[in-house]
Amino acid sequence: MPPTGDPLARRYRRLLIGYPRDWRRARADEVVAVLLDTATPGRTRPTTREAVNLLRHGLRARLGRPASRTVVAWATLAAVICGLFTAALATWAAWHTARPLPDRAAARAVVAEVLPGHEVGGIDPAAALFTFYSQPLRARNLDSLLLGDGGEYQQASVTVAVTSAPTQRQEVLALARRRLDETGWRTYPTHVRPDVTCRVDGCTPTGAVTEIVTARRGDTALTLTVAPRPSIDDTYVTVGLSRATPTAVPFAAVAGGLLGAAAGWLLFGWVSRRTERPHPAAGTVTVLYAATMLLWWAPVLLAAPSLFRHHLGEPHPVWHPLWEWLGQPALSLFFVVGAGCALCGLALAALPRRGPLPYAADQHELLG
Amino acid sequence: MREPTFLILTALAGGPRHGYGIIGEVNALSAGRVTLLPGTLYTALDRLVAQGHVAHDRDEHVDGRLRRYYRLTPPGQQALETETARLRQLATAAETRLRALRPRTA
Asked: Distance (Å) from the C-alpha of residue A95 to the closest C-alpha of chain B?
């Protein structure tokens, strides 16, 4: 049916955008005619139910393989993981909207506020918001990052050592908690970590404990650690200051996730339609898809549950960034190899087909 | 076989029909309980064509609108017969149990 001046027909035709172009070329006139037949007289706009139905089934048609009962599940698997990774990338970019970490003077002022009368020893400033072995990540570190040391890319903090002679540990903790409350910090329950001694044959508890108080005020997170005994430089309390998750991060996660999931669905659909048999690389592309999903999902399934347990186990004023939940960059080698498989699959799908695309064949059959 | 698929095949068992005709017939067969939306219908038709249960029959143009007719194929007829026998067996079993139940509850 050629485009008409009927606004309802024009709007129905616009809603078919969810369907692939070959499908629209073969079926649009027929489907629009049925939609117009079912519309109540005088209506000029599609109903919401019709619009949702056409978009939903259009997205299904984009996957090709109409007789398959599992293709939607495979596409969902690809779309979700693409969405997760793009969301993580977007949050990484959004994290860089955070203010720089407190400088030495600001860090000293916080300690004076929280532990008045205590002497400040060394201050270890952070080189960047996220560091790799305490240094900003540089291109020359990428091989180490990929080959096993990715877990060292972490959120950095300014660390202040408090060296004055300890009074009672409980007095220090009580003073810190009281001062934090008085100066507007939101405090979390004290976390107690057993002290252990490690030898070749394993680690054994010493009976002593390290106590950790966490707090947050505005965009600053504070971690006050009271060790069971002073360290070699007489430090018995350390105060770490880091940045809280910037406001832009959740918005970036949602936007990045939706865009990535949509892109994943469309790319999967394109490859799926292109590689419907007969296609010279149909089998190889299926194997590459399976390898990609395995390599991308495995780090997520390994990291997310253990990080979840870690979050439950101790208070977190600031959640670990999204990429750590996806096992990145600790297991980034998996991701990179998976991305290589995905790119090979896309390249093979672009190879010329032996026959016409399935919907083009349908059209030939329908019109023939 | 899901109910909409069963109803589409049943609608086509009465002879070739176009999309709007199938929607109307499915609605009548289900006593108004099932109203297929065009998106749902064409996903089902794509699947049935790919499975070889339904085939394109002919095209007509009525008032400037394209009407594409579909017909049941022999494999489609076979699938419908198999599903009908299955449903009949289930319905018979349920009826037998319900008949046995009625005198006791009366």
From this structure: 42
Residues 3-42 of A with CB under 8 A from B: 4, 27, 29-31, 33-38
DSSP class per residue in A16-70: GGGS-HHHHHHHHHHHHHHHHHHSPTT--S--HHHHHHHHHHHHHHTT--TT-SS
A235 and A131, same domain (yes or no)? yes
Give the whole-angstrom CA distance, residue A219 versus residue A185. Answer: 11
Write the pLDDT tens digit of every residue in A85-102: 999 999 999 999 999 999
- The conformation of residue A126, written as its DSSP 8-state character, comes to -
* Shared-domain flag, residues A209 and A254: no
Q: Does the predicted interface ipTM exceed a cut of 0.90?
A: no
DSSP code of residue A129: S
- Residue A330: helix, strand or coil by DSSP? coil
Decide if A66 is inside a domain.
no
Q: Which of B20, B39, B64 is nearest residue A57 as measured by Cβ atoms? A: B39
Same domain assignment for residues A232 and A252:
no
For chain A, what is the domain count? 3
B23 touching chain A per CB within 8 A: yes
Domains of chain B, start order: 3-105 (1.10.10.10)
Query: Each residue of B18-35: pLDDT tens digit?
Result: 999 999 999 999 999 999
| B97 CA: distance to closest CA in chain A (Å) | 34
Same domain, A234 and A267: no
Q: What's the mean per-residue pLDDT of chain A?
A: 89
Q: In which domain, by residue range, is A144 found?
A: 99-243
Q: Is A57 on the interface with B (CB under 8 A)?
A: yes
Point out the residues of chain A with pLDDT beneath 50: 1, 361, 363-368
A264 and A219 within one domain? no
pTM of the model: 0.86
